[in-house]
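[09:14] KT: can someone run the structure on this one? pasting the chain below
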Amino acid sequence: MSSTQAASAGGLGRVLKPALMAGGLVAAGAALSLVHHGGAETALTGVLGQGGWRGQSVYLFLATLFVAIGLPRQIPAFAAGYAFGPWYGTTIALVAQCLACSLDFIWARAVAQDFCRRKFGARLAWVDRTLARHPFTATLMLRLMPVGNNLLLNLAAGLTSVRLLPFLTASAIGFIPQTLVFALLGKGSAPDHAHLLWLGIGTFAASALLGLLLLRRNRSI
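[09:31] RB: done, structure tokens below
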């Protein structure tokens, strides 16, 4: 890369970083305001009532936005299962979760990585080693566990040296059990689909057990 190209890239980076930070903060502020006032569930319910491709597209946008700023991903999955059925609901909710995961990861890496490395170098180095040692297995284990904060993991991974592809792939696979669980629970909340409720409970227990097994395996490596 020539000095002119390097200077141009540096100038572009100086413009993009503040723009990304400002855009992220504005979007997060607006979405958090909706969540705080109970508007997230209302917005999703209103969208789901529209039906058709328009309703599905707006649902995908809102679900991605809400999950990206910290709404528990189980809520959109439950709503999608109730409105679209367990199988299509699982698919569209999973797409929203993966998009939200990518947005958080990319935003953290583009905007905050340098600052956090200077400010929290020692603690960030520990997270970096934990994820970088076995990025796929460690991420999959954390996604399958029944506890944990989706947003914090997305941001933490973006602040480390972990590559997006293995992190996103493991996240997508790890999202499937709980997304399916809550889509099944959403459809099972209807009186004539009670059997799906029990299927959802069984799937949740199985995914939690798999996460614990992966945790034990990861500790022994």
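[09:33] KT: thanks! The first helix runs from residue 3 to 36.
[09:34] RB: yep, looked fine to me
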